[in-house]
Amino acid sequence: AFETGTTVAGRSGRCWVAWQEWVSGETDIRGRMWTGSAWTVTSDLSAADGTERAPSLAASSTGYGLAYQAERSDVLEICFREAPDSGPFGAETVLSGSGSDCREPALASDPSGESYLAAWESDGCIFARIRDASGTWSAPAVLSASGSASRPSAALVSGDRPAVGWIEDGGQVWLSFLDG
After folding, report:
1. Pick the residue with more confidence: 109 or 49?
2. Please, are residues 62 and 133 in contact by the beta-carbon 8 Å criterion?
3. Distance between the two ends of the chain, CA-based, in angstroms?
4. Nearest-CA neighbor of 129 among 173, 97, 91?
5. Which of 107, 127, 115 is nearest to 56 (CA)?
6. What's the pTM?
7. In contact, 54 and 103? CB cutoff 8 Å
């Protein structure tokens, strides 16, 4: 096995760590939780047929979110799973569906339980989605449609203002604040 792409998120003395694991030419997302006193057994967080790569974890007051790219029906989709504080992660939700390959998800969450996802679409655009505290995802908002964007990242500024950054034209760094 070959492991890469580690991501970690934690709160209140607990944390999850997740990574991409290559076994026999297939990739899966694996992870472990620190309960505050011990590590859980390593488990499959996503191990369906096809590849799962590029995990991104985020913690909120309600638990944990995990975004990753996954090959589903010969298309790379962005997928999401959530876990309560005690784990484990639940069912997969597909968050892309444009028919284009989507890669490089970046996830951030705020204390109220909202999540912010950014990802790269194969035509070079960066899109973002917001998940409210009730679990409903917004429609994708295109942040960069230039055709030359890549490497998105997501974070909270000043504790609760979501921002997405990315590279454009191979050398310009862009930042967009999400306003809901």
Report:
1. 109
2. yes
3. 41
4. 97
5. 107
6. 0.91
7. yes
